[in-house]
Amino acid sequence: MKIRLFLLISLFSCGAQQQNSTPKINGLCLVAPPYEIKSEYYDPIVAVKANWVAIIPYAFCSPSQPIVKFDHPNQWIGETTDGIRQAITLAQQSGLKIMLKPHLWVIGQGWAGDLNYESQADLELWMASYTKYILHYSQLAEELNIEMLSVGTEVRQIAKSHPSFWRNLISQVRSIYHGPVTYSANWDNYQNIKFWEELNYIGVDAYFPASESKTPEIAELVSENLKIREQLQKFSEAYLKKVLFTEFGFQSVDFCTSGHWKTDGINHKVNLQGQANAYRALFETYWNEDWFAGGFAWKWHYKHSKTGGQNDLKFSPQNKLAEKILKNQYSKNEKN
Fold first, then answer.
1. CA-CA distance, 163 to 67, in Å (whole number)?
2. Strand order of the sheet with strand 103-106?
3. How far apart, in whole angstroms, are the C-alpha atoms of residue 323 and residue 70?
């Protein structure tokens, strides 16, 4: 009996040790550029110790035009199949793993979260063309041995109301692409997704509001983050799947953790410390959790020396205090 108990404890310990030793996904969401990508653009990405990148092929539609269009002649080169292929090849040459993360840009709205169609005919047109878009990049992901694929990003209304469409889409994707698959749900919608059982990860674009403070303190943010963490952990345990932050990030402005939709387009002042504190608190809250797979910081521009800096209000952590926090956390993978 003692021998059997010892063996069970040993097996459990080995399993836990193996799980804990799995490196976190320390990722960056790369901006699809309007210019040709060069290999040297990946040097700062490697220098910040990222081990994954999310590469984003964009498609377009509108509330009045349900056809999803991609590889359009007017698109930036970095958004097209040729540009995405080049970005993937150079990332692989730099030793980076890749999540292919298609985004839908809605003309007149921007964000895909409010997109919906009242007409069944329009909805069916959208679904057919969106399927074509995702299957096109599924084929590319399989061809280039991509490590992960997201089947959608923040398509909030249609993801909530038509789960059977997504289940069928995921089935078609898996007939082409044989790697891990996720979906990138908006932070306020992941609990409404009814097809997580078909996926490998619970993908969340993690823009959870945490504080209304002008410059939120780390302790304050961690305290609020722990409430969110508890909900995510329970959700992870219910589905027996790890949570992946398919996006996370903060603008370098006052009130940066109050919800970026509250500060977008508003004349706030630059606040590098607030952004850095938000990064610190997020890493302290999640990165040591076994049920948490890691995440992708939003967002990283290829021309590093010309991005971000002391006067920049935007999401990029580049050339700011937040980049130092990011590098410090991502460097910990090398010590495991």
1. 20
2. 65-69, 58-62, 103-106
3. 33
Closest CA to 30 of 15, 41, 16: 41
pLDDT at position 8 over 60? no
The interaxial angle of helices 120-143 and 163-176, nearest 10 deg, is: 30
Looking at the DSSP bridge assignments, the partners of residue 150 are: 182
Angle between helices 321-330 and 272-286 (to 10 degrees): 20
CA dist 176 and 62 (Å) reads 28
Cβ pair 204, 190 in contact under 8 A: yes
C-beta atoms surrounding 233 within 10 Å: 16
pLDDT at 251 over 70: yes
CA angle 91, 93, 94 (to 5 degrees): 65
Confidence band for 72, pLDDT divided at 50, 70 and 90? confident
Using alpha carbons, list the distances in angstroms from residue 309 to 20, 264, 304, 317. 35, 19, 10, 8
Q: How far apart are the C-alpha atoms of 307 and 44, rounded to whole Å?
A: 12
CA 225 – CA 235 distance, rounded (Å) = 15
- Which residues, 6+ apart, have CB-to-CB distance to 37 below 8 Å? 78, 83, 86, 87, 90, 302
- pLDDT at residue 265, rounded to an integer: 63
Please name the residue that has the structure tokens 């002391």.
Answer: 310
48: which DSSP letter?
T
Q: What pLDDT, on a 0 to 100 scale, did the predictor assign at position 11? A: 34
Neighbours of 300 (CB within 10 A): 28
